[in-house]
Specification:
The chain has about 350 residues and is an alpha/beta fold. It is about 30% helix and about 20% strand. The strands form 4 sheets. A 5-stranded mixed beta sheet has the order 1-7-6-4-5, with helices on both faces. Bound molecules: acetyl coenzyme *A (ACO).
């Protein structure tokens, strides 16, 4: 039977490293000011989230979501030994798209030099859960024969839409820029432990207003009704989060999704090599590991060095640990995600 195999993996983070020590002094152009801009500290950030540093793109308007996605995609294609023109479907997850429409996947297609080939392009909007949602789509496409080579990318430029003042500190300190990608394709195999073994997605829209960013409201005329330079009104263009509530729901749903993945596949932690959770907060991942009885040496994190890169976290983290010589081809991976929406889910795949 046809199963879906991970053919290649790649990731990219911008060069600029922003340590916690810089965060209190950054203005909204990411310049380090002499005067403190935000009432926060390295100690608070590291203690509450585990984050020590994150990456930011340049502030000169030269790098958008599709640019980070491009490099991660090229690396995943190279890893798969494929040319870009062999991709017949792109799925791109992001909450920081290049522009409102069209979706960013078509910009990526053009930058990959394959727009003439006419491959299908999907943009998905499941925030931190995009990788699992996208993999479920890609797996279904490949197994039904709808597409043969699917490029699944998560890419985020968060640094340009954060509130670099004390008002926005709860969210601002958590996020970084980066991208991760996989290429999947068909393999003929009767081994139920080959390729993508399990994907399960969930959502609960009653949590939608616990973590959101409006930017505009289409019900208004004009739909951008505020002055972006007005400190009172411009809160609309920044993310808003009920941190404690999101934290508690993330732990609950990620534990459930992890247990569901084990139950559905009949696998145990003796079989699985790595747990790659979404990277929102180290304390969330530690709590999930404790409650779901995941051996701590099997948990792969990058939150400490990349912060939360939303749609990119899972492929970015797996690729980082491959480069460190930990995860390797043939390993069995269980990944669990949770994000805005609420959305959550889990996947098990042989890498
Ligand atoms: N620096 C200093 N103090 C801060 C900061 C900051 N950056 N942010 C908040 N505080 C203050 C608060 O104002 C509060 O002060 P008060 O006690 O005087 O009122 C105090 O610190 C404690 O704030 P809490 O919100 O209770 O802190 P908590 O321990 O809950 O940590 C955090 C906050 C890190 C945001 C946590 O709630 C969290 O990680 N939540 C989940 C994030 C997440 O999972 N997001 C989902 C994925 S993202 C996506 O889908 C896009």
């Amino acid at each position: 039977m046809i199963r879906t195999k991970i053919l290649g993996l790649g990731s990219y983070v911008p060069d600029r490293v922003v340590p916690n020590s810089e965060i209190p002094y950054l203005n909204d152009r990411h310049e380090v000011c002499a005067e403190q801009q935000t009432d926060t500290s390295h100690e608070w950030i590291e203690q509450r989230s585990g984050i020590r540093e994150r990456r930011y793109v340049p502030n000169d308007g030269s790098v958008g979501c599709s640019d980070l996605a491009l490099i991660a995609s090229q690396r995943a294609l190279e890893d798969a030994g494929l040319r870009a023109d062999e991709v017949d479907c792109i799925i791109l997850g992001s909450l920081s798209p290049d522009i409102h429409f069209p979706g960013t996947a078509v910009f990526l297609q053009e930058k990959l030099g394959i727009s003439g080939g006419g491959c299908a392009c999907f943009d998905i909007r499941q925030q931190c859960s995009s990788f699992v949602y996208g993999l479920q789509m890609a797996d279904a496409f490949v197994r039904t024969g709808a597409y043969q080579r699917v490029l699944l990318v998560g890419s985020e430029v968060h640094s340009h839409s954060l509130d670099f003042t004390t008002r926005g500190r709860d969210v601002m300190v958590l996020f970084g820029d980066g991208a991760g990608a996989v290429v999947v394709g068909p393999v003929e195999s009767d081994d139920p432990r080959e390729g993508v073994i399990h994907t399960q997605c969930h959502a609960d829209g009653s949590g939608a207003w616990d973590l959101y960013m409006k930017v505009f409201e289409i019900s208004h005329a004009p739909f951008v009704w505020y002055d972006a330079r007005d400190r009172e009104e411009n809160q609309t263009m920044y993310p808003q989060m009920k941190g404690k509530k999101v934290f508690m729901n993330a732990v609950k749903r990620m534990v459930e999704a992890t247990q569901q993945a084990l139950h559905t596949t009949g696998l145990s932690w003796d079989d699985i090599d790595w747990f790659v959770p979404h990277q929102a907060n180290l304390r969330i991942n530690q709590k999930v590991a404790e409650l779901a009885r995941i051996p701590s040496e099997k948990v792969l994190n990058t939150i400490e060095i990349y912060g939360n890169t939303t749609a990119a976290t899972v492929p970015l983290t797996l690729d980082y640990h491959r480069q460190q010589g930990r995860a390797k081809r043939g390993d069995l991976v269980l990944s669990t995600v949770f994000g805005s929406g609420y959305t959550w889910g889990s996947t098990v795949f042989r890498f």
